[in-house]
Design goal:
13 helices, single chain, binds flavin-adenine dinucleotide, Butyryl-CoA Dehydrogenase, subunit A, domain 2, alpha+beta, four-stranded antiparallel beta sheet, four-stranded mixed beta sheet, 15% strand, Butyryl-Coa Dehydrogenase, subunit A, domain 1
Length: 413
């Protein structure tokens, strides 16, 4: 097997090792015992609080929260790179858990960068104190998230969730769906149109909305194909009034969210790599043990070819991921293109890796007992999270060919 620690600092190796121990001792035993129950478990009982408590104990739950508030702030020069290492390791154990945690990390980075001081003082200590405290980022609405990612910056494509200022409050009305941690978060970042007549880049604001705010209702837990140990939810806002000082960004919220989106793409690719590594490791063990045609599978040429393809794809995903993470950390000019490349490439290649894993397990690959089908389902989810594959590719072309690329929505100029 390739050395996955090549190029890591001593600190990153230690973090990786402690995540691996956490996964092997606390996550994998629970997941193996429960992956057959994924479909019958109630959302509230899906992932035990003790796992989040253990994540907290080893210092990975509050990554991104400033140290002065009790969090674990990573070295800014290598933050995205370290996120990638940790996310991969956690997702190797369970991608739903990795989603739960990475939402906390991403939203903490956003709040650290754009939230006014009084909001950081108010909310970071609560997050740090309670291992069950989850964060969520509410952008997507029933009508087209792709318009936001492109972005399609015309008034008719603006968000349908609206916020209006009434005295010393902002009153929010609308609906957000497909939100990671949406079902059980304690605190939501919510995007809403505040200037209806203009494009979303000039007329969208963001707010911090505590779960217990009157008018906020969690209307459902979405039953997803994969990543089922993270509860994805739908949230409705009906005359939901938040204090005016819970405004995060007025009218330019989408441009300010770049600090969230870039590490976000790195985290997506890294979680995806973790799922791919789990599929590869399990398959490599299986083909070296299981016998057909009088010999272990790996000695059959067609099996060896598939294994080589899987290993090569994962090595290529890893190389691009770490290249992209370095560029994000350096705030370099290619960060946009590279983080989208890493995200979309990981989603397509790991999906292929998972298909080979299922295939090499034969009929066992289809059975709930083996858990290989779980990895296949988890891999499929990544094609549609944080922008679809096609929209991510438009973003890559727009970054590479700024003057000539299309808008890919509406009438081309
Ligand atoms: C597991 C999961 C977790 C998620 N978590 C979050 C979260 O935490 N917060 C959040 O805000 N959102 C979240 N999402 C939403 C996610 O970002 C969107 O589902 C995704 O961006 C696609 O948007 P959509 O579903 O509205 O599809 P649409 O935008 O309706 O797209 C439908 C199809 O049309 C294509 N398409 C759309 N526009 C164009 C165009 N102009 N040109 C060509 N093709 C186009 C798309 O590629 C796609 O194939 C999550 C989704 C999933 C599946």
């Amino acid at each position: 097997m390739l050395d996955v620690e090549r190029g890591l600092s001593q600190e990153q190796r230690l973090m990786r090792q402690s995540c691996r121990t956490f996964v092997d001792e606390s996550v994998t035993p629970f997941i193996r015992e429960n992956w057959q129950q994924e479909w019958s478990m109630e959302p509230d009982g899906r992932l035990p609080r003790e796992i989040l408590e253990e994540a907290d104990r080893i210092g990975i739950r509050t990554l991104g929260v400033p140290e002065e508030f009790g969090g674990v702030e990573l070295d800014a020069e290598t933050e995205a790179q370290t996120f990638a290492i940790i996310a991969e390791e956690v997702a190797r154990g369970d991608s739903g858990l990795a989603d739960k945690l990475s939402q906390i990390w991403k939203v903490s980075v956003l709040l650290r960068n754009i939230a006014p001081r009084h909001l950081q003082e108010r909310w970071f200590p609560e997050l740090v104190a309670d291992p069950g405290f989850l964060l969520a980022h509410c952008l997507t609405e029933p009508r087209g998230a792709s318009d936001r990612w492109l972005p399609y910056n015309v008034p008719e494509a603006a968000m349908q969730t609206r916020a209006e200022r009434h005295g010393d409050q902002w009153v929010i009305n609308g609906r957000k769906h497909f939100i990671s941690n949406g079902y059980d978060a304690s605190l939501y970042v919510v995007y809403a149109t505040t200037r209806p007549g203009v494009g979303m880049l000039q007329g969208t604001s963001s707010f911090l909305v505590p779960r217990d705010t009157p008018g906020l209702t969690v209307t459902r837990c979405n039953e997803t194909l994969g990543c089922r140990f993270m509860n994805n939810g739908e949230i409705v806002f009906e005359d939901c009034a938040v204090p005016a000082d819970h405004l995060l960004a007025e009218n330019d919220a989408l441009s300010k969210a770049g600090v969230y989106f870039k590490p976000g793409k790195i985290l997506q690719a890294a979680k995806n790599l973790g799922v791919g590594m789990a599929a590869f490791e399990r398959t490599a063990a299986y083909v070296q043990e299981y016998v057909q045609g009088g010999k272990i599978l790996i000695k059959h040429q067609a099996v060896a070819l598939r294994l080589a393809t899987m290993a090569t794809k994962l090595a290529a995903v890893r190389a691009l991921l770490h290249e992209a993470a370095r560029e994000v950390d350096a705030r370099g000019p290619d960060a946009d293109a590279l983080c989208n490349m890493a995200k979309v490439y990981a989603s397509e290649e790991v999906f292929e890796v998972a298909k080979h894993a299922v295939e090499l397990h034969g009929g066992s690959g289809m059975m709930l007992e083996q858990g290989i089908e779980k990895l296949f389902r988890d891999a499929a989810i990544f094609l549609h999270m944080d922008a679809t594959a096609d929209i991510s590719k438009f973003k890559i072309v727009k970054s590479l060919f700024r003057d000539t690329a299309g808008t890919y929505a509406g009438v081309e100029a």
